Amino acid sequence: MESGRESPRQLADGPTEKCGVVGIALADRAVARPLYYSLYALQHRGQESAGIVTHDGFQQHSHVEMGLVGDAFTAADLESLNGSTGIGHVRYPTEGSINACCAQPFSVSFKSGSLGLSHNGNLVNATEIRDELANLGHAFTSDGDTEVIAHDIARNLLDEDLIRAVKHTMERIHGSYSLTIMHDDVVLGVRDPQGNRPLCLGKLDDGYVLASESVVIDTLDGELIRDVRPGELIVLNGDGSGYDSYQLISNDHTAHCFFEHVYFARPDSVIDDSLVYEVRRTLGGKLWEESGIETDVVLPVPDSGRAFASGYADAANETTADGEPRAKDDAGVEFAEGLMKNRYVGRTFIMPTQDERERAVRLKLNPIKSTIEGKTVTIIDDSIVRGTTSNQLVRLLKDAGAEEVHMRVGSPPIVAPCYMGINMATRDELIAANKSVDEIRQEIGADSLAYLSIDAIAESLDSERHDLCLGCVTGEYPFDIDGETADRAVERPVIGEKQPFAADD
Ligand code: AMP
Fold first, then answer.
1. pLDDT tens digits for range 396-453
2. DSSP H helical ranges for 210-353
3. Domains 16-251 and 274-486 share a fold
């Protein structure tokens, strides 16, 4: 056990979701407001529901509501969440129904106390464990996999202490998970053995915090200590005085999700020691090196394309598309805002038809004609999923007078669904799963189209390919995907639209 130190030791013998999780333990201040602000900082990770569970030393208090953080809690709700330890969650569903029953934190009372659980990730063997537990008499109230984890830990707690109970559940569950857990008034954080989803640890003036992204720690004026290690359990002291670390499972390699860096995380977050903004700028520079094309102007697709486009334009102003140093009298390329985003388009609701998805793009983005008219332009986005956004944008830019529209994409073609917790389109809907790059170019109407290579992703993240989860761009996942999960992932409804409240969408 490590007490606020950096050398964990082994314990003796011992959709869900594209979501955001947090857990906080304070000395004696009420935790509800810091949790509420944390969820605001994580709003981009889920807009479906928000929830907080606290414990006052005697009993658990919970408030979980559908909708955005700002709408989910009233001042009275926060007042009622007593206690100085608690966990929180924002949800954007992948597995499980899109309704109130799957909103989190999930809480349950059982023989040896109360348990609250916030989960970011997706288990690939939840059905198997659910069936086993159901046969032992466990009654499930939701079809999400978070409840499966809660029941499994609760069952283990009948016979063993908390640390062993968590370890034995970790040994049974497969897939991606970053969890914040409350057992009575004790807050814990766990990251799956491959570190697929992010989780970090920070220090506050009067306590400690565990969160999906470091922006939470910034928002609370705290200090980032480090990422939680893959397979590690952190237990926060109830009085906010420190934390203990247990390396419960060790793995030879990691499977960090590269897409967190490309799209999902906020650019101002530090994940696995890298500032997301800088990674995106580096990726943009590599995009120029690999497939730069000389055009009059470079435009980001706001907001997630911005850091890529600035890195691309900076690289373009240093070397030509042929890799030669730019001459002093060569004006290089102009970096401009050519697309304005309407920040007040309401919360993304499920848009079931292609027609509605296309309309949503038009509602969100509008061109600035003067930066486009009569020019050759390059637009940079982080990714193409269905192709809806790029298709609409190319048309918009041409209608606004662009002479040529070239598209550059800051990730490799997305050819397969994500089973690890990011809500992406189904295989049938993924444009790159079914078409070559040139066919996509034709379909979106661009004059040229190029994606970033997988090698560039690995280099920019300073990582080996086998230490990254590249499932959506290779179709090879860190886990065997059982037929059940794969079928559900193909059938489930998806929200492929950019989310209007995402800080970086
Ligand atoms: P599409 O229009 O379907 O090609 O989606 C691409 C756009 O959606 C890009 O502008 C991305 O920034 C954004 N995006 C990528 N992945 C996701 C996701 N999992 N959920 C929501 N938006 C996404």
1. 999 999 999 999 999 999 999 988 888 777 888 899 999 999 999 999 999 999 999 9
2. 215-219, 258-259, 276-291, 306-316
3. no
The closest residue, in CA terms, to atom 5 on ligand 1 is 385
Distance 498 CA to ligand 1 centre (A): 5
pLDDT score recorded for residue 470: 96
Distance CA 135, CA 133 (A): 5
Token pair for 34: 């810091």
Alpha helices in 317-371 (DSSP H): 354-364
CB of 392 within 6 A of ligand 1: the answer is no
pLDDT of the residue at 351: 54
* Three-class secondary structure of residue 403 per DSSP: coil
Mean pLDDT, 10 residues at a time, over the chain (505 residues)? 36 46 96 98 92 96 94 97 98 58 84 91 92 92 88 94 97 96 97 97 98 98 98 96 97 95 96 96 98 97 94 96 93 91 63 68 89 97 93 94 98 93 83 96 98 97 96 91 50 31 30
**AA identity, residue 248:** L
pLDDT tens profile 220-242: 999 999 999 999 999 999 999 99
Ligand 1 neighbourhood includes 46 CB (under 6 angstroms): no
| Rounded Cα–Cα distance for residues 210 and 208 (Å) | 7
Sequence-separated (6 or more) residues with CB below 8 Å from residue 117: 87, 104, 105, 106, 107, 146, 149, 150, 153, 179, 180, 181, 182
Cα 474 to chain centroid, rounded: 19
19 is annotated as an active-site residue: yes
The secondary element (H helix, E strand) that includes residue 431 is: helix 431-434
CATH of 274-486 given 3.40.50.620, 3.30.70.1340, 3.40.50.2020, 3.30.540.10: 3.40.50.2020
CA 425 to chain centre: 15
**What is the domain partition of the chain in residue ranges?**
16-251, 274-486
- In angstroms and rounded to an integer, the radius of gyration of the C-alpha atoms of the chain is 23
Q: Determine the pLDDT at residue 43.
A: 94
Tokens of 346: 């309401």
**Euclidean distance between CA atoms 240 and 237, whole angstroms:** 5
Nearest Cα residue to atom 15 of ligand 1: 383
**In terms of CATH, what superfamily is 16-251?**
Aminohydrolase, N-terminal nucleophile (Ntn) domain (3.60.20.10)
> 313 CB contacts (<8 Å, ≥6 apart)?
284, 298, 333, 334, 335
Q: Per residue in 140-181, pLDDT tens?
A: 888 888 999 999 999 999 999 999 999 999 999 999 999 999
Pick from 444, 427, 389, 424: which is nearest to 496 by CA? 424
| pLDDT of amino acid 191 | 98
Rounded to the nearest angstrom, the distance between the alpha carbon of 385 and the centre of ligand 1 is: 6
